[in-house]
Design a protein that fits this description.
Elements: E1 9-10, E2 21-23, E3 33-37, H1 39-44, H2 55-61, E4 73-75, E5 79-81, E6 84-86, E7 94-101, E8 107-113, E9 128-129, H3 130-145, E10 152-164, E11 168-178, H4 184-192, H5 196-210, H6 220-242, E12 244-245, E13 267-268, H7 292-311, H8 316-327, H9 330-345, H10 355-369, H11 373-380, H12 392-395, H13 401-417, H14 422-430, H15 440-450, H16 456-465
Antiparallel strand pairs: 1-7, 2-4, 3-10, 5-6, 7-8, 8-11, 9-11, 10-11, 12-13
Helix pairs in contact: 3-15, 3-16, 4-5, 4-7, 6-7, 6-8, 6-9, 7-8, 10-13, 15-16
Length: about 500
């Protein structure tokens, strides 16, 4: 394992023309101190988490002394925010330090979040607060452990610096990682400026940097869009399957790599509710849980529009037709990924007619009786096919017991039809249905303790959520449904 000072940086994005970014320097936070570091993320760049606890780390990542070879830039992009186009956004409180190439030849961009003012800060202060940093740090790593593509969180720092949001709070700093932080909005900014040469430069960069297998395609830009459509469809299905709501699915928060990007007002559903809105700033429910798949397509349509000049610069109609053909692949890919994932959640080995209806009926019963989404699927693994088996641990949760009994009869018949084995099915279901997710009340409790200087709960949650499918001794309380105070926690865009 290397030391931090031994990391070799190369910022390929910084070599793009000036209109793509602005060179910046981090502004040090007062009283910076490491709160937590992710061993898994550190390992991706051949570091041990303990390496991040020395004074050199504070100096380098805190901006007092640049990391050798790094070339920090703030990225320029635009975006549709809540459906309305904003012509220029950009990294207002973040900056890419550069890329680290690990021993396997993989590139990981390191980005500071909360590192101070940039040319894109507008009226902001360029800082992040402790609560939002804890939320992103924990959720990034939790999503990875769930098998959902995500940016990674290397480490997080607290500080003595005061930052004002709804109130005066402690400033904090997150170091996050991804192969690339390019967004849908990175393409939109050049399309709407009619800077088509720059648009082509960006597309070529993304293909060379992130999708080299597309270089020899006859139509590489269409192939790029097709790959992004496919990855986004799978991501939306994964979010739905685990009960995750992003909260701010603006196009500037959509990754060109199909990663979960920019954790703000996210939330994991407790009681199953398709209309679940985790962001109280989302007054019209644009990003409600059930709308995420359709918003994914809407956002991809914005990306496709931005890429039109690349498909056929001389024939707009032909370009639009090509884009529509690619976008038409979104729904089948989404439906297939969701259906496959739901079969796995139900312990079904093969695909049969009626499976979609079976899962839809269960979700309808859960919605009507406000059944906990995570726990119901987890506990369903304990069901036995023996007709004399006790089902009360499931049916007693439902008000509509007759409806659940009818569903359970059909479910058992479906399992018997494929000669399901109780032991193997239980193990398979427990490998895809988590026992622990980052419920809002859990992270809120960690935040409140951290604001008093106690970071122990952050560490416990990080360790717990790194193995979400394994029941861990003494941790049953972390799988419990939220207490009354934790059912109505409001999270905003400043969170």
């Amino acid at each position: 394992m290397q030391r931090l000072r031994d990391l070799q940086f190369d910022n390929s994005f910084a070599r793009l023309p000036a209109g793509f970014h602005s060179r910046v320097r981090p502004t040090p936070l007062q009283g910076l101190h490491l709160i937590s570091a992710s061993p898994g993320a550190a390992g991706l760049i051949d570091l041990q988490a303990e390496t991040l606890r020395n004074a050199d780390t504070l100096a380098w990542l805190g901006g007092e002394s640049p990391l050798p070879g790094s070339d920090p830039v703030a990225m320029c992009y635009a975006g549709h925010q809540f459906g309305h186009f904003v012509p220029q956004l950009g990294d207002g409180r973040a900056m890419v330090l550069g890329e680290v190439v690990n021993r396997r030849g993989e590139r990981w961009e390191l980005q500071l979040k909360g590192s101070g003012l940039t040319p894109y800060s507008r009226d902001g202060d360029g800082r992040a607060v402790l609560r939002s940093t804890i939320r992103e740090y924990l959720c990034s790593e939790a999503m990875h452990a769930l098998g959902i593509p995500s940016t990674r969180a290397l480490c997080m720092f607290g500080s003595e610096e005061e930052v004002y949001r709804e109130r005066i709070e402690s400033g904090a700093l997150l170091v996050r990682m991804a192969p690339s932080h390019v967004r849908f909005g990175s393409f939109e900014v050049f399309f709407h400026r009619q800077q088509y040469a720059e648009l082509r430069v960006l597309a070529d960069y993304v293909i060379e940097h992130d999708y080299p297998e597309l270089r020899d395609e006859e139509r590489p830009y269409l192939a790029l869009l097709r790959e992004v459509v496919s990855r986004t469809a799978r991501l939306m299905a994964q979010w739905q399957l685990v009960g995750f709501a992003h909260g701010v699915m603006n196009t500037d928060n959509m990754s060109i790599l199909g990663l979960t990007l920019d954790y703000g007002p996210f939330g994991f559903m407790d009681a199953y509710d398709p209309g679940f809105v985790c962001n109280h700033s989302d007054y019209h429910g644009r990003y409600a849980f059930e709308r995420q798949p359709s918003i994914g397509l809407w956002n991809l349509t914005c990306l496709a529009q931005a890429m039109l000049p690349l498909f056929d610069p001389d024939d707009g109609e032909a370009a639009a037709g090509q884009a529509r053909e690619v976008l038409a692949g979104y729904e089948p890919a989404l439906v297939q990924a969701y259906a496959c994932g739901m079969r796995a959640k139900l312990g079904l080995c093969d695909s049969r007619d009626g499976d979609q209806d079976l899962s839809a009926r269960l979700l309808g019963l859960m919605q009507a009786d406000r059944i906990d989404y995570t726990n119901l699927f987890r506990d369903l693994a304990e069901l036995r096919l023996d007709k004399f088996a006790d089902d009360s641990f499931l049916r007693d949760r439902f008000v509509d017991r007759a409806g659940f009994d009818a569903w359970l009869t059909d479910y058992r018949s479906r399992l018997r039809a494929e000669q399901s084995d109780d032991v193997r099915r239980r193990a398979a279901m427990q490998s895809v249905n988590p026992v622990y997710v980052l419920r809002n009340y859990l992270v809120q409790r960690a935040i409140e303790r951290a604001e008093q200087g106690d970071y122990g709960e952050v560490g416990r949650l990080q360790n717990l959520l790194s193995h979400p499918f394994n029941e861990q001794p003494g941790m049953q309380m972390y799988a419990a449904e939220p207490p009354d105070w934790g059912r109505h926690i409001e999270v905003s865009c400043s969170s």
